[in-house]
Amino acid sequence: MRGLWLEDQKLSFRDDLANPVPKLGEALIKMRLAGICSTDLELWCGYYPYHDILGHEFVGEVVEAPGREDLAGKRVVGSISITCGGCEACLAGRKSHCINRKTLGIRNHAGAFADYLTLPTGNLYLVPDVVSDDEAVFTELLAAALEIQEQVHIQSGMRVLVVGAGRLGMLIAQSLALIGCDLKVVVRREAPALLLSSLGIKSIDVSEVQNSMADLVVEVTGSPQGFALSRKAVRPKGTLVLKSTFAGDVSLNLSSLVVDEISVIGSRCGPFAPALRLLAAKKINPLPLIESRFPLEKGVEALEHARHPGILKVLLFP
Amino acid sequence: MRGLWLEDQKLSFRDDLANPVPKLGEALIKMRLAGICSTDLELWCGYYPYHDILGHEFVGEVVEAPGREDLAGKRVVGSISITCGGCEACLAGRKSHCINRKTLGIRNHAGAFADYLTLPTGNLYLVPDVVSDDEAVFTELLAAALEIQEQVHIQSGMRVLVVGAGRLGMLIAQSLALIGCDLKVVVRREAPALLLSSLGIKSIDVSEVQNSMADLVVEVTGSPQGFALSRKAVRPKGTLVLKSTFAGDVSLNLSSLVVDEISVIGSRCGPFAPALRLLAAKKINPLPLIESRFPLEKGVEALEHARHPGILKVLLFP
What ipTM goes with this model? Predict the structure, then answer.
């Protein structure tokens, strides 16, 4: 089959890859649409050593699923952590932190930028008919946005600031807007400001960020500068959610966190079921985030394109 | 009157200080017993520029309180933040984060290492008869320990690790032991291990700290090494409470906080009322923490003594 192969930080399109064979409890899935995420770009840059097919955002169709024949032909999305079920984290219900986990297209499990992929059937979620492929491909990213609300009780009276208006920031903003809180998104460019405005969400320029202006700040730039801006904006006894990974260490004044009693909350993958419910109910509109589409065989070009600043979602089709 | 005066990082005993005069709404308090805290030692080292009488842990007797004559002769302790009542933080009920706050013996308000001090009557708490001066002088420190439970919901099934067994660490350990959680305290010396054992609390050596061994870790060393040990010990999706101030910045891998979804919670002053209730009920025993007592005129010597590693609570009497 065809796929985008990453090895020693070299990405290549290959058409000589072996078709994956589903084991009992797994499904073989034909990719219908896949999304390029910042993590894909970071893996390409060597953020984590990974040698296999890239990609973890997808919507696909089940070809076969030994032991679950009812799934054949169904349109699905899938959570990306393949867990052992037996470690302390799994037994405590924190499956996304399984110490033996493999991760689709990220760690020890071939990814979705290919004709076919496999996942355990327990990872799959049926896509409702009213959710298009273009919407469904955002399920994983929207789930990550929703994880914030799993971790922090956000009240409607709160002043909430989202720092960063990229792919994930846009979905975070839309999900937080549903709470009815006093929401603003910090942007650096006019394009995201216009897009946010069309979605009914307020934005402010970086220069308008003031000390202690927000009860809750979501940092989604992944840059030390974005972190510093976010730290400045959160008020004493407020909460700072970190939603992006950072390259390297960041120098931090821990005393100020103590004196101001700040809560810093790391946040990663989230729940698929509410993401699909919100997409089905048309409460979240990911479609304006689609910037371009490339066929799988132009995947390297697609990832090159997605690397440019300000580019939103780039999709791959078979 | 007499008092310990700090100016340009020089501490001196003086007997020529003017008696403070209480304004309407304030109480004049005669100090009965005062405690030396790490913050006093840090102020002396220049951690924050402060030029006045040092000291914020005290139990005293109200001499007079204009407008609240009923308080005269009463034994009291007092919360240390003198707040404006009108700023955003005060109006939102976060008084300890008042942006205009003065702090007893720390910022813009003369402290308790003196014959007399003043505080607003709203800051005062009557000390129950069953609570001795030796116990009451720990109220402020115990309140700081209890702040952890105001911020984090600690369940009895949790594995809790307290890193640091100094003055505050000992009270944090005692307060957390009351939850019935699986509690261990990390110690470096035999003396605190023996003291903890006498209080029925388990301790482990630094060398016994393992990766992800605790659901909740309380960092109370204030050192970068203590922070690194604490970060190592907290499990994915766990909570790390910072209870001490750190000198300088600490280099931190923020990505690991995101990937492991760690919550880092800064924690400072806490509630006096439950601290007094627990002291009155003899559920917390601070008395073994008293290491020595010095008369006020030997205060400089007392602070020199308190600086030595492993020294627990040093008290000053008039």
Answer: 0.90
